[in-house]
Design goal:
Length: 349
């Protein structure tokens, strides 16, 4: 679907070209991460940049929003907004704030699962169930993080560790993406299995903005110009994840099937009788054989002999005593003669 060969081996230009062909059906969401300080220029950027306009997820740190700004003022066309503004628990009166936009063509089923604000960290997590997901992935959990420069790093990372650990226990087959402005912190100190995909500097010579995921070879980061008055470079995360369907070759398995005559012995009896005695009235014989077969199974079950009842299907039925009634003979006038008694027939086959 998204790619015909391993996407992790493709160059960056190939990943961007394939992302442009199927922008809303990647195996993992494409991400645009920016430290905005203003959302006005973001609307202009989405209008003229096709790659960012079709991005599945937009994460904004330091949105500088507050409760007096309504959602309608910062709503983007065709996207769902999840915001968490800085409050008094942070100990600061302005700045901060986090926003996550999800494209409605990628996912219309997203909700906020976690929020936290304190002097050491601001975080918001959303849970998404996109329209298209590989079979090995059940849910996508995206966490936006802002850790101030003067924060206690150990406290912030401890909170992130507890939150992500609970999410991974609840969804062991999910994809977990943690992105934002980490400043001095490094998530790999508490979650060493997570991979950090941003290797280029984002502010001067320092890499302050990080993107982590529990998937290996999931993204390739592309630096973009900063927005408005921000002093951080923006980042585009192009998906390079290869699904198991593309990675593993199909296997050929041998399946043993059993013929119907072996599973249902009465079928074999009927077939042989129809061939050997075509002139007999077989309907009554078939009914009597089924009644006898059911009686034997029920008798074993009543005696709590389930093993014998199960083995009854595999028994040799070459000698079964089946009562078969012959048709009444007719005289020369076409009338039936006196009723003949039933004659049991031993079906030996």
């Amino acid at each position: 679907m998204f790619c015909s060969k391993s996407a992790s081996n493709l160059p960056l230009a190939g990943l961007l070209a394939r992302l442009a062909q199927h922008p809303h059906k990647p195996p993992v969401p494409s991400i645009f991460l920016t430290n905005a300080r203003s959302i006005v220029e973001l609307e202009l950027l989405l209008e003229y940049n096709n790659m960012i306009r079709d991005c599945c997820v937009i994460i904004i740190t330091e949105s500088w929003l507050h409760p007096l700004i309504p959602d309608a003022a910062v709503q983007l066309t065709g996207r769902s907004l999840h915001r968490y503004d800085r409050n008094t628990d942070s100990g600061k009166s302005r700045g901060g704030g986090l926003c996550i936009y999800t494209h409605n063509k990628w996912c219309s089923n997203s909700r906020i699962s976690f929020t936290h604000c304190c002097p050491d960290i601001e975080a918001i997590s959303i849970m998404c169930r996109p329209f298209y997901l590989p079979r090995e992935i059940t849910v996508v959990v995206i966490t936006a993080v802002y850790i101030p420069p003067d924060a206690n790093v150990s406290v912030a990372l401890s909170l992130l560790y507890d939150t992500i650990n609970k999410q991974m226990k609840a969804h062991p087959e999910g994809v977990f993406i943690v992105a934002g402005d980490f400043n001095k912190a490094c998530l790999k100190t508490v979650l060493p299995r997570f991979v950090q995909y941003v290797q280029c500097p984002t502010r001067g010579d320092n890499t302050l903005d990080h993107v982590y995921s529990n998937l290996k070879q999931a993204y390739k980061a592309v630096p973009l110009p900063h927005l408005d008055t921000s002093d951080h470079l923006s980042l585009l995360l192009a998906p390079s994840f290869t699904t198991l369907r593309r990675k593993n070759k199909p296997e050929t398995k041998k399946i043993t099937t059993w013929p119907a005559a072996r599973l249902f012995p009465e079928h074999r009896v009927v077939t042989v009788l129809c061939t050997a005695q075509p002139d007999l009235n077989l309907r009554r014989g078939i009914k009597a054989a089924k009644v006898e077969y059911r009686r034997r199974v029920e008798s074993y079950l009543e005696d709590n002999n389930s093993r014998r009842a199960h083995q009854l299907q595999g028994e040799d039925t070459s000698h079964i005593h089946i009562p078969v009634w012959e048709e009444k003979p007719k005289d020369q006038k076409g009338c039936y003669c006196a009723h003949r008694p039933a004659t049991p027939i031993n079906a030996n086959f």
